[in-house]
Specification:
The protein is mainly alpha-helical. The protein has a 4-stranded mixed β-sheet, sandwiched between helices. The chain has one domain. It has 11 helices and 4 strands; from the N terminus they run H-H-E-H-E-E-E-H-H-H-H-H-H-H-H. The mean pLDDT is 79. The longest helix is centred in the C-terminal third of the chain and has 43 residues.
């Protein structure tokens, strides 16, 4: 895939962030309105039509829903760096401990006019890397010790250039926004699944059970839609970061060679959070009937083939 240029990709990702920020509240409000209709059917008023009752519920509920979701989003967005660090066990990598890595990152930053990100390491034999952070002061490139030890300088430079491209393209901020959105619905979906199981076991009876069923299904639908919204853009960002990294180093073959070594050896034993794993340069999920929909990364073999033909 041809790299379209830094400014173009930044504009695209900024626009996608805006679209996500707009679509998510619209999705929440749409599901809230359907929930209000369910409330209206459960608690009808003789002097008002069902639609008018639902609209009354919606006008009262909508501001509160937006405020709660907004607060939830802001907290999760600002806390994402610490959450990722806790989930991965990443520690700061000091220059004195690995001048090789620092020299590679600094040279790349100088060549493209980027600010030096923070550098972290995960002590694990698995070979992987990811970029994180929401602004210039928090942008971070994290590498595993296995990756540093197994790759030669050209290959490691290619991986670092890939992650630096994510930062320069604003991919990191875009994916954090998407992950937070999906995470909110994931929690609601988990609660909904428990409620549905409870109803299925006969614990819910009467009008309340119908209302709970509707609300649970709405949360699951919201999770599914937000899930697909994120993966619709996730795979493309990996292709773009590969192309951008190759453009930055002028050595596409080096990144292809690094990906070939990483393939099959990318699992980090200490990281089990799927939302964090999706930030990695390689995240291979178990094959399934719907794996093509839920895959966050393109097949690594296809990425290698594209790089070798640049």
């Amino acid at each position: 895939m041809k790299y379209v240029g830094l400014e173009t990709q930044q504009r695209r990702n900024n626009m996608r962030s805006v679209i996500l920020l707009c679509c998510f509240p619209l999705l929440v409000l749409g599901l809230t309105y359907i929930a209000c209709i369910a409330f209206a059917y459960n608690f009808p008023r003789k002097d008002m039509a069902i639609q008018n009752v639902a609209q009354g519920f919606f006008l009262n509920a909508a501001p509160l829903v937006v405020i709660i979701i907004g607060i939830w989003f802001v907290i999760a967005f600002l806390a994402n760096t610490s959450i990722i660090n806790q989930a991965t066990g990443a520690e700061p990598l000091e220059r004195k401990n690995n001048k090789r890595v620092y020299n590679l990152i600094e040279n790349l930053c100088i060549s493209c006019g980027a600010s030096m990100p923070q550098v972290q390491i995960i002590e694990d034999k698995g070979m992987n890397a990811f970029a994180s952070g929401i602004n210039e002061s928090s942008f971070t490139i994290t590498l595993t010790s296995g990756l540093i030890n197994e790759l030669n300088d050209d290959e490691l430079e290619g991986v670092i250039a890939h992650e630096l491209t994510h930062i320069r393209n604003n991919d990191v901020r875009l994916m954090i926004v998407a992950i937070v959105f999906v995470g909110i619905f994931a929690i609601l979906a988990d609660i909904s699944w428990r409620l549905l199981r409870s109803i299925g076991r006969g614990r819910g009876k009467g009008k309340g059970s119908f209302l709970v069923l509707v609300l649970a299904l709405l949360a699951l639908i919201g999770y599914g839609i937000s899930f697909l919204m994120r993966f619709a853009i996730s795979r493309e960002r990996e292709y773009m970061a590969d192309a951008g990294g190759a453009s930055l180093t002028k050595k596409p073959w080096a990144l292809a060679s690094a990906l070939r070594k990483i393939s099959g050896h990318s699992e980090i034993s200490s990281v089990h959070d799927d939302s964090v794993q999706q930030l990695f340069i390689e995240h291979r999920k178990n094959a399934s009937l719907f794996s093509f929909l839920s895959a966050t990364h393109p097949p690594i073999e296809k990425r290698i083939a594209i790089l070798e033909n640049i």
